Amino acid sequence: MRPFGRFEARRAFIKNSRRMASGGHRRTLLSRLKTPTYENTGSTARDHLASERTFLAWLRTGLGFVALGIAVERFSQLDISALLPPQPATSQTPTKRQREKAYQDKETVLVGALLGTGSGAIVYGVTRYFSTLRLVERGLFKPAYYGAAGLGLAVAGLAGAIYWSSGGRNMED
């Protein structure tokens, strides 16, 4: 197999782009967003090990989100009033009960989002690992742009939702 240098890779990419563009105006947005596939000229063993490390990182990330979701769910069930010294009996106003119910609903959404993000990261990591495994065996490589971007958006969305939720809670009190 002859080495695949920088200029050959560029020529192959241009040739592939022209071949895809020959479809005329019928190219969809999805076909324009497809990730190019490059020839893998490195060590196959090294690439398998790198792919395995990446898979384990996706797995760790997913398990971290799942564990955080379970922890939030468990701590939301904790009865803090049982740990505090007894207070004089006061009746709760309906608005306070409604606020507690709204907090429980927000916690349920947060737990669902954390568990969903964690499960999604694990599923993506598994599918990406096996697709990369097949490509490396054929001597090809396909960069992963959308997985990391998707996880980044999910984390940013969760962080924004938590910030907005806690900011709203402070304003109500």
How would you describe the overall organization of this protein?
- The model has no long low-confidence stretch (mean pLDDT 77).
- The radius of gyration is 25 Å and the shape is elongated.
- It is 72% helix and 2% strand.
- It has a two-stranded antiparallel sheet.
- The longest helix is centred in the C-terminal third of the chain and has 44 residues, at 94-137.
- It has a domain at 62-81 and 94-173.
- The protein is built from 5 helices and 2 strands; from the N terminus they run ααβααβα.
- With 173 residues, the chain is mainly alpha-helical.
- The chain has helices spanning 6-21, 29-32, 44-76, 94-137, 146-172, and strands at 38-39, 140-141.
- Helix 3 runs antiparallel to helix 4 and helix 4 (94-137) packs antiparallel against helix 5.
Secondary-structure class: mainly alpha
Helix content: over 70%
Q: What is the averaged pLDDT score?
A: 77
Shape: elongated
Characterize the largest beta sheet: strand count, sense, and whether it forms a barrel: 2 strands, antiparallel
Q: Roughly how many Å is the radius of gyration?
A: 25 Å
Low-confidence runs of at least 5 consecutive residues: none
What is the end-to-end distance? 70 Å
Strand order of the largest sheet: 1-2
Tell me the series of helices and strands, N- to C-terminal.
HHEHHEH
Count of separate DSSP helical elements: 5
Number of strands: 2
Q: Hey, roughly how much beta strand do the residues contain?
A: under 5%
